[in-house]
Amino acid sequence: MIHIENLSKSFVLHNQGGAVIPVMAGAHLTVAAGECVGLVGRSGAGKSTLMRMIHGNYLAASGSIRVAGVELAGAAPREILALRRATLGHVSQFLRVVPRVPTLEVVAEPLLRLGVPTDRARDRAAALLARLNVPRRLWTLSPTTFSGGEQQRVNIARGFVHDYPVMLLDEPTASLDAANREVVLALIGEAKARGAAILGIFHDEAARARVCDRLVDAAAFVPEQAA
Amino acid sequence: MQAAEMDICAKMKAEVPLLSASGVTRRYGARIGCADVGFDLWPGEVLGIVGESGSGKSTLLSCLAGQQRPDAGRILYDGADVLAMPEAARRRLARSDWAYVHQNPRDGLRMGISAGGNVGERLMGVGARRYGTIRDSAIDWLGRVEIAAERIDDRPSGFSGGMQQRLQIARNLVTGPRLVFMDEPTGGLDVSVQARLLDLLRGLVRDLGLSAVIVTHDLAVVRLLADRLMVMKSGRVVETGLTDQVLDDPQHAYTQLLVSSVLQV
Q1: Contact criterion met (CB < 8 Å) for A15 and B257
Q2: Taking every annotated instance into account, which residue ranges of this chain make up the domain ABC transporter (chain A) (predicted)?
Q3: pLDDT at A8 > cutoff 50
């Protein structure tokens, strides 16, 4: 479901003398349906950069990124938007939401955008929030004031509310207690079982061992001149 | 590929842009307002136009909305050439299919008539005549923009800035437009009011399937509202792309400067 071939990336800093910073070269990666691949490598190896390129936040300098058959390098914004809406889910480490919007709405929103009726979207959002032990009294409040762990669980609920065929998970268990970590690992297991292709960054080695079928070291993609 | 995905692909292929601009240029004497601007806006999409004061973004918006005539270029709305239309046809579009939300609600409202009158007037402009129907629609729309029904007979001059802005949105959307132009819709409002307005706008865009062109200098606003971004400098488009891509991985020197100049909170 994810096919990456010969992918490279560099940043050009126009306001700092036009400095060119190569961060990735010759990256290859595939993730099949029903498989969870863990992206490993030291800090700065480019794990997050690769995830952002697959999500379409970062432009590729050269090479190919195909997600569910759609070529992302050179894709029109609306193709990427359509892919993100229905196919490509993303759990990032940061929660970016309109302030004031209640948690339940934040979690239900991806379903509403897909045209799922409001009642059904809210029911599904509520079920996930309950499963992730987000107290019911918080559901009507905006998550912007929540603790880090609560925000992360809201992010996870939002990322799992629709059965995306492809999922990117950036540190989904990072600031969670043992019980909630178990819930997240179970959610990942269920997503794999229904055939989702998952690429994740897990610093938590035990979690990685539990859900990942394979590991890929991003350090192999660091260009020589930057290594 | 799953059936749902094939469905989406087929739908995307069948669609045509709702608004399609090419080569739009407007000069003020020797000075350039905007030059050679082109883009396609698809149904349900929100396009953000950012740039500093004087970058030509407001000039472009008023050209697109038919408020001033560009010196060159072509603007197609739903396949029809807007600039070649008779004036009456263009006015009809502006009254029914299009909406224009001004930065200052005083420019988009009639301050001397009631809130309900402001909403009803636009409905009457497209032929509504029955008082009861008009009043019911007005109450419905005041509710949607979170203005209490008992304020329906009050004049907007007594409203707060945020309420005036919400009333302007109700007045604009009551005719069920497909395309909304917004010029700094959250400018001049307190941040708490801004958030409320952003929430409202996002919900309306999603639920009504509106397309929108939003001009703003506030990158946080476009991050939350716009699907796509167009960055303007000195009247020209210097960069376009998916909103988070332009903000997270800006390619042009000016966009990099703009993004790196935002104060972190």
Answers
A1: yes
A2: 2-226
A3: yes
Give the mean pLDDT of B39-53.
92
Q: CA distances (Å), B144 to each of A62, A98, B169, B182, B188, in order?
A: 47, 18, 10, 18, 22
Written as six digits, the tokens of A172 are 């989904």
Sequence-ordered alpha helix ranges (H) in chain A: 47-55, 77-86, 103-113, 118-131, 148-160, 178-193, 205-211
Chain B partners within 8 Å of A69 (Cβ): 1
Give the residues across from B240 on adjacent strands. B230
Quick check: B11 pLDDT over 70?
A: no
- Distance separating alpha carbons of residues A172 and A180, to the nearest angstrom: 10
**CA A132/CA A150 separation, integer angstroms:** 9
pLDDT at B8: 52
pLDDT for the residue B14: 57
Alpha-carbon distance B134 to nearest alpha carbon in chain A (angstroms): 28
CB nearest to A52's CB, from B248, B251, B252: B248
Task: Give me the amino acid identity at B95.
Answer: R
Structure confidence by residue, pLDDT tens digits, A149-161: 899 999 999 999 9
Which residue from B minimizes the CA distance to A118?
Answer: B207
Domain boundary assignment for chain A = 31-62+74-226
- Pairing type for strands B236-242 and B228-233 reads antiparallel
How confident is the model over A52-69, as pLDDT tens digits?
999 999 999 999 999 999
Cross-strand pairs, A7: A27
Of the candidates B73, B30, B40, B32, the one whose C-alpha atom is nearest the C-alpha of residue B56 is B32
Measured in degrees and rounded to the nearest 5, phi and psi for residue B19 equal: -130, 130
Task: List the Cα angle A154/A47/A201 in 5-degree steps.
Answer: 45
Residue A191 CB partners (closer than 8 Å, separation 6+): A160, A163, A167, A198
- Complex-level ipTM: 0.90
Kind and range of the H or E run holding B94: helix B87-96
Mean pLDDT score of chain A: 93
Q: How far apart are CA A104 and CA A33, in angstroms?
A: 30
Cα dist. B134→B53, B120, B139, B143 in Å? 39, 6, 9, 14
Q: What is the DSSP string of B209-221?
A: T-EEEEE-S-HHH
* Topology of the domain comprising A31-62+74-226: Rossmann fold (3.40.50)
